[in-house]
Amino acid sequence: MAKLVDTYFSSIDLKAIEAAVKQAESQTSGELAVTIAPRSHHWLWERIGVSSAVAVIAMLLALWLTHQDDWGTYFNFSQAILWGVIGFVVTYVAFRWVFMRPERRRRIVWEHALEHFGKLTPTSGQTGVLIFVSLEECHAAVVADKAIAEKLPAEYWHTPQGMIMAGLKANKHAEGIIQAIDLIGAELARHFPRRPDDRNELSDSVTIDKG
How far is the C-alpha of 17 from the C-alpha of 175, rounded, in Å? Predict the structure, then answer.
C-alpha cells in the first residue's frame, strides 16, 4: 500500500508541498505538518472477513433448507457450496457501498488523523496544524491545536479540507494540498503573526505513514 503514495505523489510534488509549508510558516508563528497515508483502515481484510462470514451463513442456511429433501447428501452439499460462493461474491462486490459509506470513511480518517496529531511534538504556543490525507479513503482531515481552535471556528476548516478533497477527486493531489496550505498559512498569519524569536518546531517535510 505504500506504493499508493508513490502513484499519486512524485518527489517533485513532495518538495513542492514542503516549500509551501516553509512559505506559509515564514509569515506566522503557527506550525504546519503534512502527513500522507496510503489508507486509514485495513479494508481488504475486513472485506474478506465479512464476505467469508456471509458465505458460511449462506452455506449453513442452504444445508438447513435441504436437509429433509430426497435429493441426497451430494445435492445438499453442492447447494451449500454454490450458495456459499454466491454469498461471498455478492458481499465482496457490495462491500464498498454497504461498509465503506462516506460517513464511515470520514469518521475513520478523522480518528486516524487525531492519532497522528497526538504523536506530533507539542508546539510551545499550541499552534500546530496537521493536514492529514488518506488515499484509499480519498479523504482528508485538518486538525488544529488548542490555541488555533480558540481563534477559528470549526466550520473554517471545511474550506481547506474541501480544497484537498477536490484535488484528490480531480487527480491533482499535490495541488489541492498546496492550496489548503496557502489558505491556512494566510489565516494563521492574521491571528498568529511570526515572532522575532520564532523557531521551526515541526518538520516541514511531508511525513509518509507506512500504515
Answer: 8
